[in-house]
Automatic annotation (TrEMBL):
It is found in: Membrane. It is a multi-pass membrane protein. CDD domains: EcfT. It comes from the Bacteria. This is Energy-coupling factor transporter transmembrane component T family protein. Pfam families: CbiQ. Keywords: Membrane, Transmembrane, Transmembrane helix. InterPro entries: ABC/ECF_trnsptr_transmembrane (IPR003339). The keyword Zinc does not apply. The keyword Transmembrane applies. The chain crosses the membrane at residues 24-57, 64-85, 114-136, 247-266.
Amino acid sequence: MAVEMLSYIEKESPVHRLSGGTKLIIFIMWSSAAMLTYDTRILLFLFIISMTIFIVSKVHIRDIAFVLIFILIFLLLNNIAIYLFSPQEGVRIYGTNHVLFEIAGRYNMTLEQIFYQFNITLKYFVVIPAALLFIVTTHPSEFAASLHRIGINYKIAYSVSLALRYIPDIQRDFRTIAQAQQARGIDLSKNEKLAKRIKNAGAIILPLILSSLDRIEVISNAMELRGFGKNKKRTWYSIKPFKRADYITIAVGAVILTVSLIITFHDGSRFYNPFL
C-alpha cells in the first residue's frame, strides 16, 4: 500500500516522543530564525541541525518524496522568477558587481546574484524539513491540543485537526475512484495525450468532491449531535504533558533563536556580505 502523503507516520524516535506543543513552539522559533536572517553562516548551521534532526526522527525520504519534489519544483520556479524580475537584486544588496558573463540587456550573471539566491534556497532547505517533520511526527489530535494550548480557540484547532485527518482519506478515495474509472475504460496513463488525460481526470475529480462533501455533512451532523462547541473550553484525550525533554528542547530552541538574531542584527543588517 502506498504511503499516505502528509499523514502521521508512527515511529519510535526522540522527535515523536516530544509533546505536540513543544514541536509547535520549536517550529515557530525555527521558522522565525530562518526567515529573519540572510546570514549564510547561520543558515548553514541551521541546515546542518535540520538534517541531523531529520535523521534522528527516522522518517525516510521516500515517505515524503512526493511533497518534497513538489516543493523543490516550486523552489526552482521561485528562483527563476526572482532572476527574471530582479536580476540585479544581489548587486543592490551587497553593493558590489562581479560579473561572470553577460546575457542580454540588464540580464547578466553576477556572483552577488548567485549568492543572494543561494541564501534564499538555503532558507527553504532549513524550513522544509522542520515543517514536514512537524506534520508527519505529530498526531492530528495532539496537534489540535497543541494549538489550543498556545491560546487558539479549540474550534479552530479542531478544524485544523480534521483537515489533517482528511488528507489520507482523500488520497484513499482518489485511488479508489481512479481504479474504478479505469476499470470502466477511462485511460489516465501516459498512453493518452495530455489534453485527453486532463479531460478524463474530471471523471475522478467530480466524484471525489461529492464524496468529500458528503463526508463533511456526516461529520458536521455527528459533531452537532454531540454538542460540539457548546462549552467555551474542552479537554483533550491525546494531549501529552510536558516532560524534561520538552523543556530542554524549548530552551535550546530559544537559545538558537536568540543567538541567530544577535549575530544577524549586530551590524544593523540582515545580510552577511562576503564581498567587502
